Every structure is written in C-alpha cells, then in structure tokens.
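User: I'm putting together a small comparison set for a docking exercise, and I want a reference complex before I start. The sequence is below, and the ligand is NAI. Could you produce the 3D structure with the ligand included, as structure tokens?
Assistant: Of course. I'll restate your input first, then give the structure tokens for the complex.
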Amino acid sequence: MSNPSLLILPGDGIGPEVMAEVRRIIDWFGANRGLQFDVSEDLVGGAAYDAHGKPLSDETMAKAQEVDAVLLGAVGGPKYDDLDFSLKPERGLLRLRKEMDLYSNLRPAQCFDALADFSSLKKDIVAGLDIMIVRELTSGVYFGEPRGIFEEGNERVGINTQRYTESEIERAARSAFELAMRRNKKLCSMEKANVMESGILWREVVNRVSADYPEVELSHMYADNGAMQLVRAPKQFDVILTDNLFGDILSDCAAMLTGSLGMLPSASLGAPMANGRPKAMYEPVHGSAPDIAGQGKANPIACILSFAMALRYSFDQGEEADRLEAAIEKVLADGVRTGDLLADEGVQPVSTSEMGDAILSALDASV
Ligand code: NAI
Ligand code: MG
C-alpha cells in the first residue's frame, strides 16, 4: 500500500515559519513511529500570486483534490491589500474550501492546564475544558439567495437569506454525530428554531439523523442561550453542532475561552473519498501575523495541533495524535513559552524553532 499523501501549503507571513516546525514533527513520526507520508509542498495566497499571478493555481487545486489531506499555514498580508478582490490571497483559501466542498468545520476549544490563567474567565471554569464546535461551512446566510443591496421605494435595503436544504443539514449533522461517537457521545445542536424556519427544519433533520446514533445523547439549545452557556459553564458541552453564521460567532467565542490565537487548530472536512477518508484541510485559526512575520516569534502550536487533528481525523491515528498533544501539554507545563503566551515581563520567550525543539524532545521522551 502506498503512503498516505499530504499537501503542504505554507502560504504567507508566519505560515512558512510555523509550517517548518510541522515538517519536523511529520519527519519525527516517520522516523520514530513508522508513519510515512508522501509530502508535497506548493504555493497558496500571496506567495502563489507572486509566482504566477493567482492566489491558487489550477495545478495546485487539482493536487489538493487528489491528496489525502491538505495542511495550510496562513495567507495574506499588507503587500496584497490593494489587489483586486478576485486576486486577494484569501481567495485562494476560499477556492480550496469551495471546490473541495468542505462543509464541516471542526473548531476545538481545549484548555491546557498550564495556560488556564490566560483565559478571561476564572481558572476553574476553563481548566480541563475540551469541547468541539462543528460549524456548517458551505451554506446558510453567507451564501443564500436573494442577496444584495436593492432600491425599495426611496431608500435602499440590504438583504441576505438564511437558506438550508435538508441534505445540507443532514451531512453536517452526520459529521457531528460521527465525531460525538469518537468522543464522549454527547451532542448539543444550536439554532434559533423559536424565530427561524431554517432553525425548525434544522432541528427536525438533526432529530431524524439522531435515530442512526442511538448511543449519542442529543440536546438542542437556542444559539443565544448557547452563547451565554459557553461563557457561564463551558464544560457542560462536548460536541456542539451549529450553522454557518452562529458557528462563526460561537466558535470564536469558545476559542477565546482558552487564551491565545497561537494555540488554536481547525479542520475542515467534506464527503468521504473513494478510500473512505474525508476530503480534508487542516489549518491554524490565526492569520499570517504580518506584525511578527520573519522574526522567529510565531507560536507554531496552532499549526502543530492542526497536524494532530489530521492524524486523528484523516489517518485514524488517534493514539499518535494523543501523543503529540501530550508532548505539547508537557512543554507548556514545563513553562516553555513563545511571546504570545507570556503573561509577565520577567520570563524570556523562546523562538518558533525552540518551541519546535522542545516539542520534539518531549516526543522523544514519550517512546
Ligand atoms: P492574525 O491572526 O494574523 O494576527 C492577529 C494577532 O495575533 C497579531 O498580533 C499576531 O501577531 C498574533 N498572532 C497570530 N498568530 C500568532 C501565532 N501563531 N503566534 C504568535 N502570535 C500570533 O490576524 P490579522 O492581523 O487580523 O490578519 C493578518 C493577515 O492575515 C491579514 O492579511 C488577514 O487577511 C490574514 N488572515 C488570514 C487567515 C487565514 O489564512 N486563515 C485568517 C485570518 C487572517
Ligand atoms: Mg470568524
């Protein structure tokens, strides 16, 4: 059998810096755990625009469709701010999501004990937090028609339409139930069925899908209450399923419970391919951080945790993903900090590659 394939798209700004550390981690798993990947690397975003005048070439798009998983760094930067909308670095990312039809966006909010002081909430409310938000990513109000700004009488009206088909709800729900089965078999679905017809349909379809997952304890919550509960008592949740708009807001809210942007991974999954693996792209939540790019200051953990998600969700290597996360936990517990994780001035921050070194040593110690 051939090795699983990975396409690495480092992108712009700190993207290449954090991805360099991920490559060392990938090599470590190859050398020490017999996990060999066929890794190829290509351009996306501003880097691709500089090379061939487009934020993602057709060749790179075709490659992304063929591989088992895509790992992306970050795109964008001030240099590209004045480009035409269709050429902006972000368009490269959107094209990947759209053409791979990545409809299920997984955003974990996990609080490493060593960083619990970082949260804006009290330590005991977030310590040990480990929840996952599944956000429908390809439909809903960001895509529904009609949309636009129209003349109506003697004023203008701005219109967006929240629109969900049963099949769109169903596939997002299935991915959330599958995830719940791999975790703690607890799922909370959030919409506003009290005021939105799309929410009524959402709830009905989720209930229908739940018949296929009798072991999963399903609950429903109005999304506004969900937002309150997330900051009041986030540990009551395990997997949360929600639509594109509410998911955008709820996942950012949940993510910040845990501290720094430099710690947050994500996965975007689509339909199963012929080999049974889902179409998949893994990327940190943060952007290209132009303010610190090129200085060796970036925290590589968000990108490394994104690779851990790839191990778990694309390659069925949950134990190795646990190993990697435990190594990161250990390094943080030892007090190793990049600049973004520093609370007080006295502590010396480590560089991007020193953080990589520390994680590799912890991995060495784990075998
Ligand atoms: P950003 O996430 O790049 O940076 C926000 C702040 O967080 C900055 O102060 C930055 O230094 C810090 N930060 C982010 N990641 C960090 C890390 N790994 N380690 C240490 N500090 C980190 O968001 P911003 O500044 O709004 O956008 C900058 C550029 O990135 C823009 O061109 C934007 O369009 C693009 N962007 C790209 C995204 C992507 O590729 N998925 C997502 C968000 C923004
Ligand atoms: Mg957002």
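The two ends are 26 Å apart (CA to CA). The first strand starts at residue 5 and ends at 11.
User: Thanks, that's exactly what I needed.
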